[in-house]
Protein 1
Amino acid sequence: MSTSRRLYSAAPDPVHDSTSPDPRSLPEQSTGTPRAGPEAASHPAPRSQPLTQAQRDFLSSALRVNQAGELAAVLIYTHQTPPIIASHPHLRPLMKHMYDQEEGHLTTFNNLLAKHRIRPTAMYPVWRLAASALGWSTAVMGREAAMACTEAVETEIGSHYNEQVRYLLDMVEQMEKNGQKVSEEILDLMKTIRRIRDEELEHLDYAVENDAKGARPYELLTGVIRAGCRGAIWISERV
């Protein structure tokens, strides 16, 4: 099911550039200031057009995979927290902080899926089981392995959110070039994804600060988890 047509208005599908800079270094796009009086008559308001099919498909798959990813994060922390704080009580505030943020992210995407009538991924039950098992198993391996899990997951999720922000920036830029009105919902979505991305990258920093790289075997563990994340993202975007 695709996003509702009333949700957004946009321009033709932008061309991606793999060399695009980190979106955090790019300025916010401006839709200009409203005109009034005689100036308004000579400069009519930008027209609004529906999304192209490619843009609707992108936004539908993006929100679906984001919701699945945040569900997985909540379940990972749910199953990591008891073993970790049992052996490292001083980590209780950090684990709660990261869990609370992930729970907030999940609520955000749950609401967006419901609002725009986008179905969750069909792999939902599988991801629930996989995330729970990953959280519990890395916690049992020890604090370093649990933090390495966070580092690996957040590395892939941060990169994924960066790609979405770049796409939305390209979309807004093309809309403005075409004289089209930029939907407030598009701008709000871009800001929301940027905020969530930055919080995910904070989790990555916390993991490194708490000896993620001390996990054994670090390279194998993080490599397997990152590959699993990429595979889950690819599947959830399509199924």
Protein 2
Amino acid sequence: MSIPTIVVIGSLNTDLITRTIRFPNPGETLTASSFSTGSGGKGANQAVACARLSRSKPKPPSGSRPPACDTASSQATPGQTTTTTTASATFNATEPTTAAANVRMIGAVGSDKFGTRLKDGLESNGVHVDDIRVIEGETTGTAVIIVDESTGENRILITPGANSRVVPSSLPESLFTAPPLPSLVILQLEIPLPTVVHVITSAKRKGVPVLLNPAPAVELPGEVYAGLEHLVLNETEAQILAGMEKTLAVVERGGGGCGAGLRETCMHFHGLGVRNVILTLGGEGVYWSSSSTPSFSSTSSSSMPQEQQQQQQQQQHIPASRVDRVVDTTAAGDT
């Protein structure tokens, strides 16, 4: 019996991480607490998360310590949690019998040591890396990150490098033509937008479900939403994609995070054709909404009896688990 295949198409970055007691002011020089490098990128983070969740955790030898993971980042503006962390070896990729799914990564790295490290890290986590191109003369994508140790907040500057070379013509020809087709395609917006639109359109044509994490958020064409299976986004991204008139509907909450604004926001995306919407709310957890009829318009749904609308919609707020101290919001929005 074959197992599902998850294909992640997206970015691979090397993170250059500086930790400091606070962010420097413009023109100010501070002495940092520490510096480290890590492997990440939204696409790589999602691939590692899928691979880890699809495999049984191996039992370490008696008396041994678990392997350390590479660290990484979030995003440039508070509230926009994104990018990075791929970890070092934790799974044996040669043990397919323990996998609940095959995970393939499609992307590009430069012909440098960062690219080699990224591919090795993914493979050691059980991700298939045959479709990651190494582009001669190009640099691997990088993210320069500053972490405020007092709050765990981050600032990040991304240089796309080889990620900008992930164009439709560079994708494997067999992706949607040769069986078995992917069981799920996962995308983000750290690769060129025309590639994202091309993949979504091709996947829909073949009946392959797509999960889109629209970050960093940019305005998207309507064809992206029509028939999209999963949309996972945070509040800031929802504001950008839904338009300024929806801003208050996104951030206003009531009744433990289950305010009408969250429902209205999900209805907005359902009206565009999205079946499942997941709003990540930071410390408030997540709010999800599923529509049994994703193609209905917001106009037609507003004229439906309330009971009929409720039958079409399933919605729930799931609170976040509480911790005593937030150390770093690294990659929380990616996975």
Protein 3
Amino acid sequence: MTAEEGFPAPDLPFPIFQISPTVRRYLLYDIKTVSWLRRTHNILGVLIGSLPQSPQQNVFLGLPLELQPEEVRLLVDEGLAFIVDDLQNHTQSLRSSPAQLQEYKGNVRKEGLAAAKAVERQKQLRTQEALQRLSIRQSKPEADDAKDGFKDNDPKDEDDSLLDLSRSRNSQPTSSKLVPYTSTPTTSYPPLSPPSQQSSTSILDVNPASYELFRHLHSQGYFMSPGLRFGCRFLVYPGDPLRFHSHFLAMSAEWDEEIDLLDLVGGGRLGTGVKKAWLIGGAEKPPEESRIEQVEETQTSRVRTFCIEWGGM
């Protein structure tokens, strides 16, 4: 089974919610979209929501997922997502007609009823498997007695078996008795439509140097998460962080930017001390004569990266 079959793609392009025009934080609420992005596009983000069962701890967090600005711009550039103003969209949704609200509540009830039926089916399957194991255990002594030529037909045992069967049949609930589960929708209704024109460069205030480095490493198949706790821009993983440790501490720089020697020494020592390589990279500045052709044709720059390790540690 391929990744696309196990994690079907959401309706593309999907919305990314921006909290406000001034606070540039981008959130995803749908677990299916989050799983699909992680599996097929190496997009991690950061979970920032508390868990309902343990709201007073911050070790394990849940939805929503906050995306890095570089991740959002990459998704918009590739046509996979579009940005929605969360406040404006919420205000418009409150003005929906009564008919739309009733239809929305009906869809939520259907989803809750489907979830309740799925749970009941699992219970019935577990009950049937337990009864089958019990019948196998009870048949083994009867088979041994049959080999020895003895068979005890106890009417009490037959009554007990009939009673068990009747109980199992009566315990199967009907759909009319099921109480729909209360579900919290994670998608908008009615579905949001993407804008006719949306440029990522005009919406997202992203550092060009860090975006070029992020785009380059992402195209090589790496996973990236924020690197604040290690004093870098990105933590770079060769695979999913649930299976691999990070290999690089990545920092971005402009092509003509001067880098302090102490930063090189400190970054190299830090990376070596935590068993990682300190990586610095940026987009190569093209010659003057080829700059116009590059802007007209590809809009991309060649990115070069360098790793620094401290020897003797």
